[in-house]
Specification:
Blueprint (H helix, E strand, L loop, with lengths): L1 H23 L16 E3 L1 E2 L24 E4 L10 E7 L3 E9 L20 E7 L7 E6 L6 E6 L4 E3 L7 E7 L2 E9 L12 E9 L4 E4 L16 E4 L11 E12 L7 E13 L4 E7 L27 H4 L45 E11 L2 E10 L8 E12 L3 E12 L6 E13 L3 E11 L8 E10 L3 E10 L15 E10 L11 E15 L4 E14 L4 E13 L15 E13 L6 E12 L2 E15 L2 E13 L6 E16 L2 E10 L4 E13 L2 E12 L8 E9 L2 E2 L1
Parallel strand pairs: 1-14, 2-4
Antiparallel strand pairs: 3-13, 4-5, 5-11, 6-7, 6-12, 7-8, 8-9, 10-11, 12-13, 12-14, 15-16, 15-38, 15-39, 16-17, 17-18, 18-19, 19-20, 20-21, 21-22, 22-23, 23-24, 24-25, 25-26, 26-27, 27-28, 28-29, 29-30, 30-31, 31-32, 32-33, 33-34, 34-35, 35-36, 36-37, 37-38
Length: 739
């Protein structure tokens, strides 16, 4: 059976690569770089009278010449968009206005009206503003036919994306026979820009979901995203406006009552705190937080862990998410519009903010306060963060700091440095320092090179306190390849990072092609992606530690769904026994080799019913596994969505006691009362322990950037032993005061 699976997969891979030259013969429809003379221009027009923001475009300012001629990136790069879009830009002394009329011969697709909605599964109009016209960074504002609001900050053309950035702005939409229209009002005070510059960079984008069609006013090749500001147009004729002080205070009050699982009594608590933001200059912003609390953050989702390492959980706290990309050092994907399974740099993520204020077992550590400085000054991109935590669980409090500086050089390249530290309060013997340099160079021909070198200081080690990584990458429409190496010394320490092991060297390759044979479109297939990824680890003496070869073929459908068939060959050398499940014997010391094949995919996420799945059959450590994970989503309207998913692994390993089954059930339900009021419920069940966890969050945005949160948490054991459920109820109120 295993040989048949390997042979079948090998044939599929060879077929994929055999048809690839058919697509390679087609010239690229859109250039990856342009000159200033090739840029499109839009003239901002002064508003002559008041604008009633209702989305109807019935003011005279919207009757002048419009910007149109959107060009497809998907599905047929370089071709005119199938539906017309008209855009106007206007301004008065305090506000930038954008009006757009989006013609549509069908029915609009809307699946969400929440703040910062997911733009991938519905019709969307978006604008990006490069307010410093540096061709690298900007602000994105987007909406859908029901007037949902989404905003984010991007830097280095998408290498850093700050989805937690929030601005005070408005948008209204309206329907008309043959499409929909919108009006955006973006106050100048919500943006950072150079007041001596009267020109910005700008681009407009539109997603027509029923065709899975993406088009832009300033054309962008399909290999890149809307964040590719080096291809954006120019916005001319703006007034000599100023951003203002941008001084904001956001106090909060919180009350909670908690009963621990198995406890008898509830304990109550009340907290107050403050967040403040101030625009120090036209480019620099200072954020300060005092006694922050993150009770409103969604709980982590349980997952099956079949490895010897700890699982990685994403940061969800707003203060740490905002501008977090500025502190990233590495070569994460920055351009490609398709990301099936985004993964962190688990071999070494230099800055991992969950190390601050969250204990190893996931409990919240009290944070006394902190400050963050981000932005541009003197031709440099700078970021600094300082936080102090209180004593917790018998351990002293800590001071944490990270400082990042980067200088943009040449056309799309940069050099930078990072410093990180942890110092125990009142304990000079407990500390950690990390210092590093990095560079990112963009070469002609869609090639870039990324590298960094860091050293650490810790009293626990004398030697081997270093790490480095280098990689070269080519990201094109048809062909992509990344190859590189990295090394972590035996004594490398980083109390603000995430990594799995030290004293290891890694070599890696990620290679594939993306042919689009025209004949396959008749079967609903838009793109085929045969690909290979290879990771090889050895110790610093050259002995193998681990390796993994992933080879597969992915079929992307016109609807937006996909199917992948893949084979994974794995090797792990274990130096100490470890427990994969408490019910079975430990995995023994030695070298373990196994193969597994994987069938995975997803359907059109914009439909009433959609799903995803992943089936794994084959080896696992000393035996075999049969794993399945998947979910079914029901979305009857843009206000309601519910998803039920399961992750199940059954394994038979070679040991006296080595058969186990791990299963987690998860249910997510979301309801939006309107654009400013939502409720979310996350329910998780572990059949092995009969543990049921519930997390229900109600959020009302009662005024711009001001919230009321009501959060209910419950943990119960359905064992029949009469263990009292753990319960908590938290109410948190915030109010934004802007000056």
């Amino acid at each position: 059976m295993r040989r048949l699976a390997v042979r079948t997969l090998s044939i599929v891979v060879m077929i994929g690569f055999a048809i690839a030259p058919l697509a390679a013969q087609e010239p690229a429809a859109l250039p990856a770089t342009i000159t200033d003379a090739q840029r499109r221009h839009v003239q901002a027009m002064p508003v002559q009278g008041p604008i009633e923001l209702d989305g109807r475009l019935d003011e005279g300012i919207w009757s002048g010449p419009a910007q149109s001629g959107f060009v497809q990136a998907e599905p047929r790069e370089g071709q005119p968009a199938t539906e017309d879009t008209e855009v106007w830009v206007a301004y008065d002394a305090s506000t930038l206005y954008i009006g757009a009329r989006l013609y549509d011969s069908g029915d609009p697709t809307v699946n969400d009206i929440r703040k910062d909605f997911d733009e991938a599964n519905q019709d969307v109009f978006q604008v990006i503003l490069d307010t410093f016209r540096d061709r690298r960074s900007g602000y994105v504002f987007q909406t859908n036919p029901e007037g949902a609001r989404g905003d984010r900050q991007v830097a280095n053309e998408g290498r850093e994306v700050n989805r937690s950035w929030d601005a005070i702005w408005r948008v209204e939409t309206a329907q008309f026979a043959g499409g929909w229209s919108l009006e955006m009002a973006i106050p100048f005070r919500s943006l950072r820009f150079d007041p001596d510059h009267d020109g910005w960079g700008i681009n407009f984008g539109r997603l027509l979901r029923r065709n899975n069609e993406l088009s832009y006013w300033a054309p962008i090749p399909r290999a890149y995203t809307f964040n590719r500001l080096s291809l954006a147009g120019d916005l001319d004729g703006l007034p000599r406006a100023t951003a203002g002080r941008d001084l904001r205070f956001k106090p909060f009050a919180l009350g909670s009552t908690v009963r621990e699982t198995g406890g008898s009594d509830f304990s109550s608590d009340a907290e107050v705190g403050l967040d403040a933001k101030y625009g120090l200059t036209s480019g620099l912003t200072l954020d300060v937080t005092v006694n922050p609390d993150f009770a409103q953050v969604e709980a982590d989702e349980q997952r099956v862990n079949l490895t010897q390492f700890s699982l990685f959980f994403q940061e969800k706290r707003e203060f740490f998410l905002e501008n977090s990309g500025l502190f990233y050092v590495g070569d994460a994907a920055r351009n490609l519009r398709i990301r099936l399974t985004p993964t962190p740099d688990e071999d070494l993520l230099l800055f991992f903010s969950r190390r601050i204020g969250i204990s190893a077992d996931g409990r919240q550590v009290p944070i006394k306060g902190g400050a963050r400085l981000t932005g541009q000054a003197g031709g440099l991109v700078v970021g600094g963060m300082f936080m102090r935590t209180d004593a917790f669980g018998g351990a002293p409090g800590n001071d944490y700091g990270v400082f990042r500086i980067r200088k943009n050089v040449l056309r799309g390249s940069d050099v930078g440095a990072i410093v990180m530290m942890r110092d125990a309060v009142d304990d000079e013997s407990s500390y950690n320092r990390v210092y590093g340099l990095d560079t990112y160079i963009r070469f002609p021909g869609e090639i870039d090179w990324s590298t960094y070198y860091v050293v650490s200081e810790s009293p626990a080690f004398d030697d081997g306190q270093y790490a480095w990584r280098t990689s070269i990458n080519r990201e094109g429409n048809f062909h992509h390849i990344k190859l590189g190496a990295m090394e972590l010394g035996d004594g490398f320490t980083n109390d603000l990072g995430f990594f799995n092991r030290t004293g290891v060297r890694k070599y890696f390759i990620d290679w594939g092609v993306r042919p689009r044979p025209e004949s396959f479109r008749a079967f609903g297939v838009r793109e085929i992606h045969p690909h290979i990824t290879w990771n090889y680890y050895d110790d610093l003496d050259g002995n193998i530690v681990a390796k993994r070869l992933h080879s597969g073929v992915t079929f992307f459908f016109e609807s937006g769904g996909n199917v992948q068939l893949a084979m994974d060959r794995s090797t792990e050398r274990i130096s100490e026994p470890f427990v994969i499940d408490s019910r079975i014997d430990p995995i023994p010391v030695g070298r373990h080799d196994w193969d597994a094949w994987v069938l995975s995919g997803s359907t059109d996420s914009s439909r009433l019913l959609s799903g995803n799945w992943r089936i794994t059959r084959g080896g696992l450590w000393t035996g075999d596994q049969r794993s399945f994970s998947g979910g079914l989503t029901i979305r009857p309207s843009y206000k309601f969505r519910t998803t039920t998913s399961v992750s199940r692994t059954s394994a038979d390993l070679d040991a006296p006691v080595a058969s186990f089954t791990k299963t987690f059930w998860t249910s997510r339900t979301n309801y939006s009362f309107n654009e400013d009021m939502f409720i979310d419920a996350l329910v998780q069940y572990d059949p092995a322990t009969k543990r049921l966890n519930s997390n229900v969050r109600f959020n009302w945005i009662h005024s711009p950037l001001s919230d009321v949160f009501l959060v209910w948490n419950e943990q119960r054991f359905e064992t029949g032993e009469g263990i009292r459920p753990g319960r908590s109820l938290t109410v948190k109120v915030t109010k934004m005061l802007a000056f």
